[in-house]
Amino acid sequence: MASGSTRLYPHALPPQRYLSRSTAMSFSGGYSEYFGMQVDEESIIHLMLSNHILHTLYPDCITIAEDVSGMPGLCKSVKNGGLGFDYRLNMAVPDKWIQILKELKDEEWDMGNIVYTLTNRRKGEDCICYAESHDQALVGDKTLAFWLMDKEMYTNMSSLIPMTPVIDRGIQLHKMIRLLTHALGGEGYLNFMGNEFGHPEWLDFPRIGNCESYKYARRQYNLLDPDNNLRYTQLYAFDRDMNLTEDKYGWLASQKVLMTTVDEKDKVIVFERANVMFVFNFHPSNSYSDYRIAAGPNGKYPLPLGSLSTL
């Protein structure tokens, strides 16, 4: 959160705004789903009033809606008939990444579907994008890093030993997933604590089922200690460089994205945003040289960030 800002972060907005109060409601995007008799008008007015008061009394505050329904007007100002939030979470994105890692082989990744999920938002309604959060890291599921590298994270993350194929693949994909999400998924970026360096373990808070244990109610920041000689520091360095690069070029503030390549055979995604060209090769075995892509003026293009840059 920016210094001096205030955040209103209502949890699970759909059951609050719909009379069914069901978190299992499904939404196809049809506008009748958002403006029928099933909508709780009193809850809508409550949210509008809350945002109006906050933004009037604290002009620098930021309010973010956790909304999976995709309700129109959620991030429009109250004076323009919206609910007045500044951002909503792009909640479909982390679910998509987990679904891909759980169910698909590398060669089965659908580039078009990934791009669609990342860009499926209304113009003018700003989104916070993220690759994973506590929802994916809670006990019973796995973090992105653990889906990618599994048990080898316990034995083969030392930088003093040769990198295994599993760790090599996992580190590169972890970087690419974060960068693609950052560059294409919204107008803001959320880093769940530990995701910036590929935290290996899940979260589990004290409860009857684990005998009120605090063992996994933690994030192991000691993994970043340089004296440990672990590759988590490389993942962290990439995350730092990714955010510094965005600070320099400002793609999150750019509303215009020019998609130039979505190639299912080559597993290549290319697009431009804020005069920055992003090139992703997700092919599990093919590297490309002299690969033709659409570009702007002739000349040499500097490479400010690459997935191999912090190895």
From TrEMBL:
<dbReference type="GO" id="GO:0005737">
    <property type="term" value="C:cytoplasm"/>
</dbReference>
<dbReference type="InterPro" id="IPR013780">
    <property type="entry name" value="Glyco_hydro_b"/>
</dbReference>
<dbReference type="Pfam" id="PF02806">
    <property type="entry name" value="Alpha-amylase_C"/>
</dbReference>
<feature type="domain" description="Alpha-amylase/branching enzyme C-terminal all beta">
    <location>
        <begin position="263"/>
        <end position="301"/>
    </location>
</feature>
<dbReference type="GO" id="GO:0005978">
    <property type="term" value="P:glycogen biosynthetic process"/>
</dbReference>
<dbReference type="InterPro" id="IPR017853">
    <property type="entry name" value="GH"/>
</dbReference>
<dbReference type="GO" id="GO:0043169">
    <property type="term" value="F:cation binding"/>
</dbReference>
<dbReference type="InterPro" id="IPR006048">
    <property type="entry name" value="A-amylase/branching_C"/>
</dbReference>
<dbReference type="GO" id="GO:0003844">
    <property type="term" value="F:1,4-alpha-glucan branching enzyme activity"/>
</dbReference>
<protein>
    <recommendedName>
        <fullName>Alpha-amylase/branching enzyme C-terminal all beta domain-containing protein</fullName>
    </recommendedName>
</protein>
